[in-house]
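User: what does the whole thing look like in 3D?
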Amino acid sequence: MPTDDAKRRLTSALQRFRRRLRLRAFVLDLPVSAALATAVAAAVTVTRSEDLSLRAWAVSLLLAILAAYLVAVIRTPSLAATAQVVDHELRLQDRAVSALQFSESTDSISRLVVAEGAARLEDLPASRLPLTFPVTARWLAIGTSVLCAAVVLSRMNQQSTDAGAARTGPATATASGGTRSPRDGVATPDAPKGQASVPPASSPGAAAIPPTRPASAAGTPSAGESSGRGQAPASKPPADPSIESGSAPLTPESTSPNRAQAGGAAGGASRGDGGSKNGTAALTAGGRGAGTPGGREDLAGGAGGTIGGRQAVPLQPNDAGNRRTAAYDAAYNRAEAATAAERVPFALRSYVRAYFLSIRPASRQ
Amino acid sequence: MTVSEHALEQAALFRDCFTQLRGEIGRVFVGHSSVVDQLLLCFFCQGHGLIEGAPGLGKTLLVRSLSEALSLRFARVQCTPDLMPADITGTNVIVDAAERRQGFTFQPGPIFANIVLADEINRATPRTQAAFLEAMQERHVTVFGTTHAIAPPFSVFATQNPVEMEGTYPLPEAQLDRFFFKLTISVPEVHELAEIMARTTGDTEPRVSPLFGADTALSLFSLIRQVKIADPVLNYALRVLRATHPQVAGAPDSVRKYVRYGASPRGTQAMVLSAKALALLAGRFHVAVEDLEQVALPALAHRIIRNFQAEVEHVSAETIVADVLAAVRK
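Assistant: Here's the predicted 3D structure for the full assembly of 695 residues, as structure tokens:
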């Protein structure tokens, strides 16, 4: 029947414009949701002080697009509302509205109205309804761009600070609950609270690798060893008996020439271990060579920091374990120097550190 | 021929008739094309028109030209203070019947014509003006208890002079409301005046030729009423009407300030019906908002009762209607 055909054509044409209106709603909603997603991602980056991976950013944007589409689907107008919008924007003189309303009628005038409306709508492409961005979307885009730029710049600045600190040698470390790296004096967010960092070695060769190794809040000798050693890779576990004794361990690594200042740190650690102060204060004091009232006698003698310390014991060349340890130390030093000289990403540095930790010899355990 | 084809043919006939009438009237009535269109709309919608203008602007000529072009029965009533209602409606008179018997027979007045011109209606007394009320609204006349129907087509066109108000009886609001449109004839432009001089002072005077009769007109009336109006469009007309009332929320400031009482539902009836005719003229079988806006001024202006402040500040009803349309369009 002609009436059914006209009605079908009318509905089809209106559906076409309806999809266009849905797309328009999507375009209108997308800037808002994308800005929200970007803001959330930036907030996460800032608060957690870590780089979000590209994948995370992509996922957030994908979610934003999905949210915008869902909102657009929800806000898709009905056929009657679509007809009103089409009439208004395309100046159809209420053809679509009239045709839709009288599409169920069977009189001759209604048929003419429906046929005329359907024919008119079929001739019009849906693209005649423009996809306009609201003014607020522009401001949102600008704000989001500024936010992203600020985050990127802050991250770049932080990385350059890392590299600069590595080039200039270790700065004064603060044992502020693990917020500063014991090696390069740069804030390390992943150091657990309560873990002590240690003052840097006075050796100019002390490299800057933010540690992820835990250091005992009680001023463990291992922390003192790390700092005193300067480039020593390993840390002592808190369960080390030397902690309980409050003395610096006499391990083969203490025979390293770089360990000339280790006694200072160890002394500091032993002082903190004495129970009067926390690990932070103890380590700092030890780093300054402030002496160790509660430390062991032999370590107290080496607590002079740069002037104290035990004499290095040369390695025996025929000792395979020592050779392996020496090789390990040399490789570790080279890696640490290389990562300090180059602008190595944080993740890669962590990877290198984890690698050396995993292959460290038994003497370094 | 299908029903749809018949409707299309009728619509084309309406457009032709309208165009021919416009041209035919234009042969004797110069300028004011919008007034001519409104007069024709008024007639095709079977409404009554109130034509206001200064003397000598062609008000009577306009109405007479219309009746001549339609070859319909035309009657003119020159309203004066001593005009009686019976002079308009007619009365029963004693006539000689067969077999020497006499009886009362109704003698119809000039109101029983197809097109009635009530010239200077504001000079008639309110009683006489009221005689028009029943005829205009009910389309019948009651004389001595007997109702006499007026045959269609029937339209009353009244004229009034806004200048000479002394000795006149301004039409009450209730009677103003009966008029479908109020048409205002202003002073012609210079080139229009020149054309009037050329036509009326020459040796030949243009005359109007009859185009079609009552049957054709009646079929066209029926077609106009079949034109569709969608709910959103009708809703627009209703919102316009409500916005003319100062006590209604959403009325513009000018309405709140200057209007004592807004337009009656007859205003919307006039808007919708004339918009249907306009839609047909535009080749559509449905009414658009643009049609309503086009006829809002002649349909609503005379139905809005202004307050004293509006008269003091010379705020016209036309200005108020324009404000209403602008407010509703937002």
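In plain terms: Chain B touches chain A at residues 2-4, 6-8, 226-233, 282, 284-290 (CB under 8 Å). Chain B has two domains: 3-203+211-217, 228-329.
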